[in-house]
Design a protein that fits this description.
Blueprint: E1 13-24, E2 27-33, E3 45-50, E4 54-59, E5 70-75, H1 79-85, E6 92-99, E7 112-118, H2 122-134, E8 142-148, H3 157-166, E9 170-175, E10 185-186, E11 203-208, H4 211-224, E12 231-234, E13 250-251, E14 254-255, H5 256-259, E15 262-264, H6 265-272
Parallel strand pairs: 7-8, 7-11, 8-9, 9-10, 11-12
Antiparallel strand pairs: 1-2, 1-6, 2-5, 3-4, 3-6, 12-15, 13-14
The chain binds flavin-adenine dinucleotide and FE2/S2 (inorganic) cluster.
């Protein structure tokens, strides 16, 4: 009998945590030492394994032009994400990836690009904003509409300011509920769409956030005349293998992990109608 020394393709690779950043009371970013660092594209995700607890899909949230710095931003919602949130600098986390279909940034060249994010949905879109900012002259108008629950939940506040002031991105932030010191917009993010400055006929839109928000945002964009095939959504579904093998995320012939998670709205609309795959 010969023993294979090959590593199983689904085996998580242990990575050290180089830095932990607490973004908000329930959200944190892990910067990982991954060697070799994965060359990911904006919108792709990794499977992160908290040893002894479980494995979850989490998008890359760092700058794709700096693949040496692998960053993931996670909201604590259940056992695995809370266990990841308890890890300290120097601890190990299991990683495998990148997986999935990225945002179609190249298709947006020469067009206006509108990004609509809700809550933690800004994390999977952040690499796309970095990429657009780095190649800003290749795009028409660039608009980022971001909604958070309250001022204390606004993610990446320094990035938002930098993108607005130095990267030529038209950033609007709104919160569901303001505070006495909040001077910005109050209301749902979809409310910003009717007055945002872009040309619907030449727009590509990228949406990420709670499904109800994406559905309303997609409809608001369609009402302005953006074709469904140019509105792209990142879907979240239960995943186990991430390689179209286990069937957890399957709907008919579609595997959200491999065919997505990014889909055009004319395809996603059908998938959104199914609560959990
Ligand atoms: C492709 C992809 C990329 C993702 N990227 C990120 C990211 O960058 N940052 C981040 O914080 N989260 C992201 N998620 C969601 C993350 O995977 C879940 O929050 C995580 O799996 C929850 O695991 P848990 O054990 O902590 O909680 P669980 O006990 O599994 O879930 C806690 C609660 O969250 C709900 N939930 C769990 N998983 C999902 C899901 N996939 N979609 C919707 N609701 C869910 C459950 O219904 C339950 O109410 C992504 C999901 C996918 C599919
Ligand atoms: S997660 Fe296993 S098939 Fe998609």
């Amino acid at each position: 009998m010969t023993l294979s020394t090959d590593v199983h393709p689904l085996a998580p690779i242990p990575c050290r945590i180089r830095r932990v950043a607490r973004e908000t009371h329930d959200t944190f970013s892990l910067e990982l030492d991954a060697a070799p660092a994965p060359a990911f594209r904006p919108g792709q995700f990794a499977m992160l394994y908290s040893f002894g607890v479980g494995e979850v899909p989490i998008s890359y949230s760092g700058d794709p032009a700096r693949p040496g710095a692998v960053v993931h931003t996670t909201r604590e919602v259940g056992p695995v994400t809370r266990a990841l949130g308890r890890l300290k600098r120097g601890a190990a986390v299991g990683c495998r990836g990148p997986y999935g279909r990225p945002w179609p940034i190249d298709d947006a060249r020469g067009r206006d690009v509108v990004l609509v994010a809700g809550g933690i949905g800004l994390a999977p879109l952040r690499p796309a904003v970095h990429a657009i900012a780095a190649r800003r002259s290749e795009f028409g108008r660039a608009v980022l509409l971001y909604g958070a629950r309250g001022p204390a939940d606004v993610l990446f506040a320094r990035d938002l300011e930098r993108w607005r002031s130095a990267a030529g991105i038209d950033v609007s932030v709104t919160v569901d509920a303001g505070t006495p010191t909040w001077k910005g917009n109050v209301g749902v993010v979809t409310g910003l769409i009717p007055r945002a400055a872009f040309d619907p006929q030449r727009t590509v839109a990228l949406l990420c956030g709670p499904e109800v928000m994406m559905r309303f945002a997609a409809e608001a964009l369609r009402a302005r005349g953006v074709p469904a095939a140019r509105i792209w959504l990142s879907l979240e579904r239960n995943m186990k293998c991430a390689v179209a093998w286990c069937g957890h995320c399957q709907l008919g012939a579609t595997f959200v992990c491999k065919d997505g998670p990014v889909f055009p709205y004319d395809v996603a609309e059908r998938l959104l109608a199914v609560r959990e795959l």
